[in-house]
Design goal:
Elements (H helix, E strand, L loop, with lengths): L7 H4 L5 E12 L2 E6 L16 E3 L2 E9 L2 E6 L7 E6 L1 H25 L3 E6 L4 E5 L6 H16 L4 E6 L1 H6 L17 E6 L3 E4 L14 E9 L2 E8 L1 H21 L6 H35 L5 E6 L4 H14 L4 E7 L4 E7 L7 H11 L3 E5 L2 E6 L5 H11 L5
Parallel strand pairs: 14-15
Antiparallel strand pairs: 1-2, 1-6, 2-5, 3-4, 3-6, 4-5, 7-8, 8-13, 9-10, 10-11, 12-13, 15-16, 16-18, 17-18
Helix pairs in contact: 2-3, 6-7, 8-9
């Protein structure tokens, strides 16, 4: 058995099922792989991801070209002999639409603005091309998108052919190319959008620009002296529109506003939220001050308090105020549920307690961890139910035991 020089995915990218023979097998990265005499599954390359499908019912995880052979990485035991190969057509056609859309987008960007494409990436949700334009204006994006739409409506044929290395090297054809892959041998495959573009490419493409359906430029960003253009085409564009439509419907219901009012309504809600947050912070500061005042009215040298529904920032506020009001005393503050929460140990400026050392002991009792230096030690506790033991430890340290 011999391996086909031109695989079925190239001969006709619309083939979805093929019977062929396994000619080799092995293992790569913990998964078995097979090499087939022929294949309809495209291996990753040229910016286009690998196809998916099955071989003898076993799922194909990846398809990679290594040392001139196409490895089909499998999610199960490698079959042998004659096998049936099935293609995930939905994924393939999506890639055909995006890749053909990229050829057309690149050609029109070059024709209209002289922008040369330097890279192409076909992502899972959004595609992008990098062009050598240091800056792209919104008006240019709109003009480029309209030019692409015109050629999609024209339904221009998309053709493929192979030429010899000699013909290619002669330069008689006006071929757009970023160069042949390193180590390339044999004929050169060309993809042509009739009347628009002739390009070196090994990927799978639509047979007409009409099959792209539509292409939408989503935006741009500057990078490395050039610009990256983001876009989607075909079925992806319809799915993206559906996603945005459903999201807008949810927002309309939540906000009680029409599409045109959504941005203003959200901006108003955000401002209201900021104002509410400012009010909450002011109330928390007032509560912390009141809590500190209540604490320092007690006569103990160690002030102890627990708040089930508060957090560490609240404990910090209380400790700050208590230290200001009673610099000759220490505090042991906790917050949270009995199982876990936050703790804080602090001492006023007029005390000589070794807070970091005491804090470490408290953390051990509470089954937590923390840190600090100077007058404060704080952290998380895994056993707040033992806060009474921790308080006794601290009382002993300050010379007071109730």
């Amino acid at each position: 058995m011999t391996v086909s020089e031109i695989n079925a995915y190239e001969r006709d990218p619309r083939i979805t099922r093929l019977e062929t023979d396994v000619v080799a097998n092995g293992e790569a990265e913990g998964h078995p792989f097979v090499v087939l005499a022929d294949t309809i599954l495209y291996p990753e390359g040229g910016g286009q991801p690998a196809d998916r499908g099955t071989i003898a019912g076993v799922a194909v995880l990846d398809v990679q070209k290594k040392a001139g052979m196409i490895r089909h990485i499998l999610d199960g035991p490698a079959p042998a002999g004659r096998v049936a190969v099935e293609l995930d057509w939905v994924r393939r056609f999506d890639h055909m639409q995006q890749h053909t859309g990229q050829h057309l987008l690149t050609a029109m960007a070059d024709r209209i603005f002289g922008w040369h494409t330097t890279a192409f990436h076909l992502g899972e949700r959004i595609c992008d091309v990098e062009v050598d334009a240091p800056r792209v204006e919104a008006g240019q994006l709109a003009e480029l998108e309209e030019a692409v739409a015109t050629e999609i409506r024209a339904g221009r044929p998309v053709l493929t052919r192979r030429v010899s290395r000699e013909e290619y090297a002669e330069g008689a054809m006006d071929v757009r190319s970023r160069g042949l892959p390193e180590g390339h041998t044999g004929d050169v495959r060309l993809v042509e959008i009739e009347g628009i573009d002739l390009n070196t490419c090994g990927g799978t493409h639509c047979s007409s620009t009409a099959q792209i359906e539509a292409l939408k430029l989503l935006g741009s960003e500057s990078m490395r002296g050039g610009t990256r253009l983001f876009w989607v085409a075909g079925g992806r564009l319809r799915r993206l529109h559906e996603t945005h439509h459903l999201r807008n419907a949810e927002l309309r219901e939540l906000l009680g506003a029409s599409d045109d009012e959504l941005v203003v309504r959200v901006a108003t809600k955000l401002e209201q939220l900021k104002e509410a947050e400012r009010s909450v912070r002011a109330l928390e500061e007032a509560l912390a001050l009141a809590s500190a005042v209540a604490l320092v009215t007690e006569q103990e040298s160690l002030l102890v308090a627990h708040w089930p529904e508060r957090d560490l920032p609240f404990l910090q506020r209380v400790a700050r105020e208590a230290g200001r009001l009673a610099p000759d005393r220490a505090v042991f503050l906790t917050a949270g549920e009995e199982a876990e929460g936050a703790f804080l140990v602090a001492a006023g400026e007029a005390t000589d307690l070794n807070v970091p050392a005491l804090g470490s002991k408290v953390a051990e009792v509470l089954g937590g961890r923390g840190g600090g230096s100077g007058r404060i030690f704080q952290g998380k506790a895994g056993r707040l139910s033992r806060r009474g033991e921790a308080a006794d430890l601290l009382r002993e340290a300050v010379g007071q035991r109730e």
